[in-house]
């Protein structure tokens, strides 16, 4: 599935496969990714929004979010150590300021990246939990698909990433189908993870019969 794909059914299929890819990755990594994803996708957003009128996250919640991010992507234990050691009051204040800054994404990211161990990618995960319709998580897989580069974690790159995913979400939202930028990110992640874990399924005999027949003769 290319990022430029306009077939809504293909995007929906990729998004629907998100949970199964999380389960498979959890088994492969022998991790608790399923429960971490349940916390991040379903529990944390509700917890944050219940804290009206000044929503925030705690150090413990940020630590769980970091565990989710690192388990779903690349494991960097020092980042988890940094975040877990943060003062709770400092985390609450920074996250409050960030949420109050929205829809100014740039300012919101800047408010969060004052925290040790929190870069634009982790900050994006915090914002995505609070406002998935505005700020998608900056995953390597989605960055690669949307921008062709997953190595640049700068704020400038994230803003370019947001622009692409917001536009794609609008393009896909039609005829009763609603996509948020975060839905687009999860669909891209799901497709990329599925593709990398089952490369043999990417060869479609219907689209390339000659290549398929040659491979059969070699096997």
UniProtKB/TrEMBL annotation:
Residues 195-219 are annotated as: Disordered. Residues 208-219 have a biased composition (Basic residues). This is HhH-GPD domain-containing protein. It comes from Lupinus angustifolius. The lineage of its organism: Eukaryota, Viridiplantae, Streptophyta, Embryophyta, Tracheophyta.
